[in-house]
Amino acid sequence: MRGIVVIGGGKIGGVIAQMLAESGDYAVTLVDRSAAALQAVVLHPRLSTCALDVTDADALDGILTGAFAVLSAAPFHLTGAVAQAAARVGCHYLDLTEDVATTRMVKALAADAKGAFIPQCGLAPGFISIAGADLARGFDRVEELRLRVGALPRYPSNSLGYNLTWSTEGVINEYCEPCEALVEGELREVPALEGLETFSLDGVTYEAFNTSGGLGSLAEVLAGKARNLNYKSVRYPGHCALMRTLLNDLNLRQRRDLLKDVLEGAVPGTEQDVVVFFVTASGWRNGRLMQESYAGKVMGEHHGAGFWSAIQVTTAAGICTVLDLLAAGRLPQQGYVRQEEIALADFLSNRFGKAYRQPGDVVAEEARHIAEEA
């Protein structure tokens, strides 16, 4: 049984720890500096907790020594400290960060690491990168690849059309930092909250706009292979205009702590959410211009006496799946590992990754295997 340390006992970290402990293959230690947060976690015989401040390097090294892997579900500004500790003690490292600067640090640390360093293992970046890369591989030349993801309230009731379903700091960071994209074959930075568009899925109208971090390393992987590539967050119509007012007109972009206080004091959280993802690729295949899409929705689920929201399920399932594939030897065991190296078929067939399966996915995979064998 492999020892796993999960850093961060919040909404996502607690579910990750429970998923892994309940699988029967991992002994999990959940770490958070808040004893109160740890007390709220549903315990399991294979799940223990430890109150520890990750900025204490000696204490962090001590808890990681001997572990198979550390999974960081900490706020993005603490992720670097966890990665540095993993490099010092020699264990595998996985995280959920969408922060571009943090990922660059992880990549640099991975060059001399004894274990595998796998950042961005959540929903976006994470699963959406895997799905996008899978679609891209089906074309001789990709003209355009569009990734759209949103964690939304099922029952929006305010003018923002939004509820806080995950890290407020993470949302603000996405709305403020530059966004990577491929434009006419060149890697560029484009501004957040721009590129507004609308689309419909299953009869519901959504808007989407540039946000930072969701593309992961996909732009780097597809540079020279795709003409246009972009990632946008999905919201209900009207959200982008109101966020532009807050961030640009009221200049809260420069006062992010104040914006966090405003949002958390006025926008309620919800567990009644839905994760929407929509990936579309167009390009040339056997001399013809073709298009292929992969879309779906994931709802929350009842678990024991509690309930796991859609964003908890999708994010935790993402990193747990990658850990499973690493433990099974399906991924490189040392150095920097990109999400795009993970096969979509392997992900969806995993016990944790099945949370993302959509009607027809299994049939489609069976048909692909039959065709390959033929």
List keywords for this structure.
17 strands; alpha/beta; 13 helices; globular; 36% helix; 374 residues
Structure description:
It is a single chain. This protein is of the alpha/beta class and 374 residues long. Helix content is 36%, strand content 29%. The chain contains 13 helices and 17 strands. Strand 15 and strand 16 form a beta hairpin. Helix 4 packs parallel to helix 5. The longest helix has 18 residues. It is globular, with a radius of gyration of 20 Å. The model has no long low-confidence stretch (mean pLDDT 92).
Instruction: Kindly report the spatial arrangement of strands forming the biggest sheet.
Output: 3-2-1-4-5-6-17
User: Which shape, going by the Cα principal axes?
Assistant: globular
Parts with pLDDT < 50 across at least 5 consecutive residues: none
Determine Rg (CA atoms, Å): 20 Å
**H/E element string?**
EHEHEHEHEHEHEHEEEEHEHHEEEEHEHH
Strand content: 25-35%
Structural class: alpha/beta
**Mean pLDDT across all residues, rounded?**
92
Number of β-strand runs: 17
Percent of residues in helical segments?
Answer: 25-40%
Q: Sheet with the most strands?
A: 7 strands, parallel
Number of helices: 13
- Distance between termini? 39 Å
